[in-house]
């Protein structure tokens, strides 16, 4: 029997080219981060690019094994059964948040429904299982919008979530089948800008991207938790090594963040954001305001989760329904126009995508939100696997 890695390598995925206990109230911040003179990013509309061919399970590259064969068609889903091998979870509602689970022969993840607050465990070849249910208020774009495993998940089995309640936005923690407990509360909520995102920094801290709750002034206010990238420990306190030791703020200036991601070596941190007139990707520098994006999308594809695949940043979009792939130079700068994959032009599309997280050097996992304004199929909303390739593998890339 073929291994799963070989089956993944044969998918006609049109894959991507490359990837806290209790604190009540608001924190006090002692100062506003100093500005840095960054060049503004070019305002260019992303160009659709060709879909790359997958490398073989043996590591071979396109063209090294003779002519490529046309993608095999996949039958449409029948009810909740999806015949696409990339799909590992089906029949959920607006999967806005995902986080990869470690270990096991098959890729597995936790998937969070934005509107219901339900969290499911999904994996290839198995039925989804409810893992937890969090009380959420999904108005104003909020609800359950972020998930990440504890930095010490192997020992404590804890999961952290970013949720909206009737009174605030907050970070909570929970274990399987248990009631959530607050970690960081008092993040402002408003009529919009309530979504947030979570990841870990690789050094035992949590990274939290918060929306501005519909108040742009809050994003610049050092005494507000809104519109920020925060760095906290697992009890909700400012993490050791922050620019201001008494403040959780790492960077300021967000509107409605869609995703946080870091490079495999932890040297780069990125956050996607949706402003009133454009979508943006920022490279986060500790202690510096988010004023000069690394890239902007004037056509507003709805940037969401992201993955740093070393030579390329992959950004899921929840409006355009594709993945934007931006090549990254050795110095960490964006070195060219983005190309679109999983867009249906030269391969498959899964529709609107939201949360995305890297599983390994070769795979990422993403959730779909087609039931939130898209065109759902019978098996939506879904959790899908996405293959990561180096940017050099994309035809037409320098």
Automatic annotation (TrEMBL):
Stretches for region Disordered = 33-81
Identify the keywords attached in UniProt to this record, alphabetized. Answer: Signal
Q: Where is the composition biased (Pro residues)?
A: 68-78
Membrane-traversing stretches: none
Record flagged with keyword Signal? yes
Q: Where is the Glucose/Sorbosone dehydrogenase domain?
A: 109-287
Q: Which residues form a coiled coil?
A: none
Q: Does the keyword Signal apply?
A: yes
Kindly indicate where the leader peptide sits in this chain.
1-29
Its recorded name reads Glucose/arabinose dehydrogenase
Which species is the source of this protein?
Amycolatopsis magusensis
């Amino acid at each position: 029997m073929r291994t799963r890695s070989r089956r993944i390598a044969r998918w006609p995925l049109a894959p991507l080219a490359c990837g806290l206990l209790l604190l009540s109230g608001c924190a006090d911040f002692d100062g506003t981060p100093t500005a840095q003179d960054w060049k503004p990013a070019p305002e260019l509309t992303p160009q659709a690019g060709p879909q790359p061919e997958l490398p073989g399970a043996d590591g071979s590259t396109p063209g090294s094994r003779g002519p490529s064969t046309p993608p095999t068609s996949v039958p449409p889903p029948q009810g909740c059964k999806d015949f696409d091998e990339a799909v590992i979870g089906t029949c959920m509602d607006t999967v806005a948040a995902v986080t990869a689970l470690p270990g096991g022969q098959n890729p597995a993840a936790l998937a969070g429904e934005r509107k219901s607050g339900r969290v499911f465990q999904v994996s290839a070849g198995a039925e989804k299982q409810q893992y937890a249910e969090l009380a959420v208020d999904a108005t104003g774009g909020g609800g359950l919008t972020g998930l990440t495993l504890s930095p010490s998940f192997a020992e404590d089995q804890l999961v952290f979530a970013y949720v909206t309640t009737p009174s605030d936005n907050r970070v909570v923690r929970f274990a399987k089948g248990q009631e959530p407990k607050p970690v960081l509360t008092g993040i402002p909520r408003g009529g919009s800008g309530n979504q947030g995102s979570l990841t870990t920094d690789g050094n035992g801290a949590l990274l939290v991207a918060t929306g501005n709750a519909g108040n742009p002034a809050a994003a610049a206010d050092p005494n507000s938790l809104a519109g920020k990238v925060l760095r906290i420990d697992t009890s909700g306190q400012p993490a050791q090594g922050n620019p201001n030791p008494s403040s959780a703020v790492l960077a300021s200036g967000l509107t409605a963040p869609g995703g946080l991601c870091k490079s495999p070596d932890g040297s780069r941190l990125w956050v996607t954001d949706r402003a009133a007139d454009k979508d943006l990707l920022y490279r986060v520098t500790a202690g510096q305001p988010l004023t000069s994006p690394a890239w902007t999308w004037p056509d507003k594809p709805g940037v969401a989760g992201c993955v740093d695949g070393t030579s390329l940043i992959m950004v899921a979009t929840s409006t355009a329904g594709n993945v934007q792939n931006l090549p990254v130079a050795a110095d960490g700068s964006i070195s060219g126009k983005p190309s679109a994959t999983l867009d249906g032009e030269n391969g498959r599309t899964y529709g609107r995508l939201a949360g995305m997280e890297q599983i390994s050097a070769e795979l990422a996992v993403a959730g779909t939100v087609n039931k939130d304004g898209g065109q759902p199929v019978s098996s939506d909303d879904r959790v899908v696997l996405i293959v990561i390739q180096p940017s050099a593998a994309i035809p037409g890339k320098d």
